Amino acid sequence: MTTLGKRLKLLGALRSRPYAMIWIGQTISNVGDWIFNIALAWQVLLMTHSGTAMGIVLIVTMIPRLAFILIGGVTADRLPRRLIILWSDGGRGLIVLLISILGFTGLLQFWHLLIEALIFGVVDGFFNPAILAITPDLVEKDDLASANALVSFSNNIAQLLGPLLGAALIALISPMGAFAANALSFFLSYQSANCDTMKKGAPRLPFLTKEEIACQE
Questions:
Q1: Global pTM value
Q2: 203 by DSSP, 3-state: which?
Q3: Domain limits at 153?
């Protein structure tokens, strides 16, 4: 197999339009998450001048994420995974947008960031199992390796671009500008995962679930 052929094979999962839309949305959202992480750390330091405060925010995020991951796995098996992804992206987008508005208006307080971190931790406990479990539903078995490679590529791109964009937004605007950019990334991800973005009249592919087929009708 030629080098070009191998590269094209790595993109095989994108032949599934539902997966391609999910992947594009999550790539944008991952970049937004790294923008948010940089902005959050900077904002906490600006408000508290304390590294301990940043540690508290991280703990408040991690505990519910770990506590709810098992429940999230069961939920992903019982409820439509796309619905979980939509609610997660839309809800987090609204929360970050609210935080940015509070910051721009001078009303943001440290406890607001703690509440945000807590909610994000809970939501991640449901979102992460759902986004992992939906992939086999959207691509053929032969394309699972391609899907995994694309996820890894997406994460690497996000880790490279996100901090750079986050630092640029903080320097040019403020941490609130970076928060707003993260909110936008969640809304774009929501739109990509929304059934309405699926091509109308697309053929019914045999490897789609009933929910995915319904999205294309």
A1: 0.82
A2: coil
A3: 16-215
